[in-house]
Specification:
The protein is an alpha/beta fold and 637 residues long. The protein contains 22 helices and 25 strands. The strands form six sheets. A nine-stranded mixed beta sheet has the order 15-14-16-17-25-24-23-20-21, sandwiched between helices. The longest helix is centred in the first third of the chain and has 17 residues. It is globular.
Length: 637
Amino acid sequence: RPSRRESRNCHNDFKRGGPREQRHKEGATADGMSASKRAASSPAQGGPSDAGSAVKRLRSASPANGMKYVVVCGGTASGLGKGITASSIAVLLKGCGWQVNMIKIDPYLNVDAGTMSPFEHGETFVLDDGGETDLDLGNYERFLNISLGKDNNITTGKIYQQVIERERKGEYLGKTVQVVPHITTAIGDWIENVASRPVKSGTNPDDEGHEADVCVIELGGTVGDIESMPFIEALRQLQYKIGRDNMFLVMVCLVPLISDEQKTKPSQHSVKELRSAGFSPDLLCCRCETELLPDVRKKIGMFAQLSPEQIISVHNVSEIYKVPLLLKSQDVAEIVANRLKMYLPKGMPDIRDWEQLCRKLDNLEKKINIAIIGKYNTGTDAYLSVTKALQHAAVSVNRKLEITWVNASSLEDGADKAEKDVAIAQLEAANGLLVPGGFGDRGTEGKVLACAYAREKKKPFLGICLGMQLAVVEFARSQCGMAGANSEEFDKSSPHPVVIFMPEGSKEVMGGTMRLGTRRTILKSKDCATAKLYGEDFVDERHRHRYEVNPKVVPELEAKGLKFVGMDETGQRMEIVELQDPSHPYFVGAQFHPELKSRVMCPSPLFVGLLRASAGQNPFDELEMPQTPRKGRRSTG
């Protein structure tokens, strides 16, 4: 009887059209002709219909078991969009029929992103296994519809922690532990280990995953940073180990527009810096305001020793979801496949679903305004997953999203009158309200007032994590007569602590001590709004919190009409709350973070409910897009 791994390999072989051991040598030719052009000139090769039999590739006899790597690094400046570029390249590779894994390298000394300020670093993205990671992993999951783990995010802190622990155990046998070779070897081993692990599809935490063909690695920061040097050296060593035909290097560089002229010097210096580290780029993705001019391509290519076709214009587009189309139009998939000797069948990459999405985005006319009442409103990265989930849901209900950022502190009693008047006017003008998560007491009373406004004025409302807790605080004060009701996080002497500290939490150690990762929520009734939206009697969503609703006050709250329709598997933790008011279009709060599992092609059900109600539609109507990942999994067995 075959083992589970053998059975899975047989399944993968069937999907790819042959045994994994088969080799194809059509991936590259000396004339440099792209794979798509070669395929088009050969009548023996079919189109997309026979992609299953055609998607096979060369595997070298390397320690990495033939894994292909695409490394994306940056030069000149950070914040150029390496994460979007890496995700878009991965979309193209997936569109070719290959299975893709992704790794993000963050050179900072923090072990993870869990203790970082949202102002400085943006949101902390939480994974199924509880990993607190960089927000780019959220981009990877949303673009590829996969679920990653905490080991897909490598930090300097993790590597040094691992090496020091090994040294303390005596595993280096008395050797002098050094950056080279010990740190660099640890980095390379980590990359190879994670790249070979199965990648889960969709958002099902029980999915066994599939073996990857290609691993896309994004190196954070810029080449030349002191903190990045060990990772650059580790990647150089890995390339030497597995062979140059198994690693493709992409550099994202800046081409600024100064006095209406595209300047190439920053890109030239970026390539020079990369070469000094022992690497040469295979592709330059040039970030620019407008499309790169042909003469500029030639000039950059001359200094980088690349053909003009290998200089890719990544100019500004109206939506980030158009970047895969932009790269496809410049034959990026063909360039990667040719360089890595991977066979590319005719008609690939097939990203028709992305093309359809972009056409839909371009044709949206009706607008919908959602007010986000937050406290980290300087920039939008602190609530990146929330804004993306809103956009996914808006597209599903055929609306063009507009977000109004309301500073929660401006709603409080001590706020400047002019600022408060503006904030209240923003609430009135919005079609729906969303109160996201957060930590600390700043702005919390403003969020409480926003919850009261949504309840009293019948505005569609979604509260997430802290937003859900403060909706409970507001209801306890106004409807249950609990004067001074509050969360223990903000008022430890409150006479009515309706939100309490979790007993297993830690108040001394901050990193990794919250309730993290995917947890199951059991729905009490099939008639509740959440059950209708999810189409299930349970929900698997990701959490990140230290405080929870006090179960002792639940009976009194429910008696007044605030129903806790979802609890954890023990029945002790309140996970979902709904206002039982037939005249209110939508009032839902969730202790978990539904935005973390929202996907471009598969929006979060709770966000869909909010957007439908805000658009004056029935929140429970069937959608044109798949309603939830779970429904899709159930239908496919």
